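PROTEIN SPECIFICATION:
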Amino acid sequence: MSSLPTADDVLSPTDEIWPLPKVAQLLNVPVTRVHQLLRQQQLIAVERDGIVGVPALFFDEHGIAKHVTGLISVLADGGYSATEILRFMYTDDGSLPGRPIDALHGHLAREVMRRAQAMAF
């Protein structure tokens, strides 16, 4: 079995990550499906304190937040590494205001996607 792809943990220590079994339970899928989502770059995981997990803000009450996989895809297709994608998503941007990951959960999600498309090409 190959190891799972993980990004460098560039998140703040206060940004929660959820272990893969919790992600599987939330999505109501086997943990192997979560592994597949990571390999297909639909989600990004980090390793923290020996635990591989996915940032909690990638999810909402319905599962994977609406624009997360699209944002990851746009940036990955533009040549950004998983670590660079996380850095973009979790770095404060005063013009939004706030972080892109937080904006994805609100009315600025389309603006974040527009900026990602411009960065990627």
